[in-house]
Amino acid sequence: MQLQEKNPQWALLESIDSPTQLRQLPVEQLPALAAQMRDFMVRSVSRTGGHLSSSLGAVELAIALHYVFDTPKDPIVWDVGHQAYAHKILTGRREAMSGLRQHGGISGFPKRCESEYDSFGTAHSSTSISAALGMAVADHLKGESDRWHIAVIGDGALTGGMAVEALNHAGVYKKGVKLLIVLNDNNCSISPAVGALSGHLSSLVSTTPIWKAREFSKTLLKGVPVVWDFAKRIEKQTVNFLSPRSSIFSTFDLNYFGPFDGHDIDGLVRVLNNLKKLDGPVVLHVSTQKGKGYKPAESDPTLYHGVGTFDPDCGIVVKEADKSKPSYTEVFSDWVCDMAQADSSLYAITPAMREGSGLVEFERRFPERYRDVAIAEQHAVTFAAGLACGDVRPVVAIYSTFAQRAYDQIVHDVAIQNLPVTFAIDRGGLVGADGATHHGVFDMSFLRVLPNLTVMAPSDENECRKMLTTAFKLGTPAAVRYPRGKGPGVPIEPGLETIAVGKSRTMRESTAPASRRVAILAFGSMTYHLADLAQELDATLIDMRFVKPLDRDAVLAAARSHDLLVMAEEGSAAGGAGAGVLELLSEEGVCVPTLCVGIPDRFIDHGDAKRLFADCGMDVDSIRAKILQRLG
Question: Same domain, yes or no, for 117 and 249?
Fold first, then answer.
């Protein structure tokens, strides 16, 4: 059965194409709507892949928010956006879910250009409170006071420093700024939430007096206005008094209510209707279950956090990993354990991406030399810098897109001080279905300009292992950026060998006649991507290895002995590795026809990698055509 066809089991859901229609339902029908939505969501995402667990846990919350508030007039900002599928379904995109995260289809995240209900684009963590507060203050400055601005943020995202900064700012406003912060507390970020703040939230949820206070608050919220006014006056003090330690929200002088059952839709509607009577920033704390309503996801929410296609009736079948052709993440995972075994000074750090960055086994084997610092990229880098000052050798495992959030720390705290921090930068290049917010396309551009920093890009698995060892043993700041997924399948040599810094390797030499000699200077994944084309065109193929320092001798020799230099990288062409080659040629006064192949100067949408390569003109056919055109 196609999901687009009418399904009697989803009759209520299929009658809702907008929040306006949703608000016409009696509240008694909302639980049935939630059940149908979960079934639809599981079967839809099973065909497209996507972020399932978080969205299953936020179904009642999404329904209640759209039921009570006048969306899109009252804007909702969904932090990260992993939990926003119910929001998309309720806002006229139910049928479009068949193209979720597919090329030309709807995004897996809220996106302003996609719907008027997506008030703010999200995908990176901890931005929602700042954005919603800005919208609320903008209304206040214009003298408009008839709209609520809602930020929905998870407990994991609340560990991000930016969220805490926004709470601190929000507490300044007492009246006239209609901001509702909904803490969706499922006690389960991608990797387990860590740190003192996470522990504090757990205490708030689990302490018996707090649960009793919650039930008492629910009773008050049903009552008459006089009692409601009383509740407003005492709620903050009551929670603060009963909490095992001072509530963070009370510390910021914010009106706090909760925790409430995030799956009690009748209770949520009642609470939200009463909170609308308040003035000034308000925090509503709801407790939800990640994966709610789908047993496999309830049992293993991490497995179902981000999924590919699967059989919804059987769930995901976990297959034995093919060790003969490991992913780059697995190459890093094996290397960091081997390096730690050989060098007791190694200390691994991740900002809330233990599984994604390949540090599960490291934590198991070396728990005292591992730290997940939560969603705190800035802290992760400066923490590493501090460790390096104490003769510890930190390895920061971070996605390319998230390294952007710590750029000042990379510059100010690591590079300027020339500290021996190794950056293992995963997901360098186009990552596919997550789209523009997650492509790792800028790292070579923003890292190569930093003094003291060595930047490497491996072309295969064996090179990746050697480069990681080289970076670790340099004794200065170094980064190894590698792509998502598997490499070309080159066997990995045992041991912890290094490579010569700033030296490329020539994969093949051209024997073409004069005027037809092409040299391809490939960085990282583009080396094997263009290997067959180099053979076809009888071109020289150089695996550049180093984005910085460039192999000056190899570049200049190629420029002086070839008729066309082609620089190819899976990164931004603007300011990227190829631009570094052009700078070198200009500096040396060498004139030679050139062609830069890379990601163009625009944000690249979501889709499968093969299609995205073609859209960027980086597929083999496009590159061949450009080369032949240049040769004439």
Answer: yes
* 576-597 per-residue burial string, b: 16 or more CB within 10 A, e: under 16: bbbbbbeebbeeeeeeeebbbb
The active-site residue, picked from 178, 290, 354, 371, is: 290
Q: How far apart are CA 124 and CA 100, in angstroms?
A: 18
Q: Is residue 319 part of a domain?
A: no
Measure CA of the first residue to CA of the last residue in the chain; give whole Å. 53
What is the residue-averaged pLDDT of the chain? 90
Structural domain of residue 289, as residue ranges? Answer: 8-299
Tens of pLDDT, residue by residue over 202-257, are 444 434 444 444 444 444 444 444 444 444 444 444 444 334 333 788 889 999 99
The answer, yes or no, to whether the previous bond of 549 is cis (omega within 30 of 0) is yes
Among 236, 354, 369, 405, the one annotated catalytic: 405
Same-domain status, 106 and 227:
yes
* 213 membership: H or E segment, kind and range: helix 208-221
Do 589 and 475 reside in the same domain of the chain?
A: no
**pLDDT given for residue 244 in this prediction:** 35
- In this structure, is residue 210 part of a structural domain? yes
Q: What is the largest CA-CA distance in the chain?
A: 92
Query: Could you confirm whether 290 is annotated as catalytic?
Result: yes
Number of domains in the chain: 3
Amino acid at the residue 59: V
The CA-CA-CA angle for residues 325, 327, 330, to 5°, reads 105
Of 377, 461, 569, 570, which is the active-site residue? 377
* 188 lies in some domain: yes
298 is catalytic: no
Report the candidate in 487, 349, 492 with the shortest Cα–Cα distance to residue 422: 349
142 as an active site residue: the answer is no
pLDDT value of residue 250? 83
Residue 108 CA to residue 207 CA, distance in Å, equals: 36
Under-50 pLDDT residues of the chain: 1-2, 4, 189-190, 200-246
For residue 273, the model assigns a pLDDT of: 95
pLDDT in tens, 387-417: 999 999 999 999 999 999 999 999 999 999 9
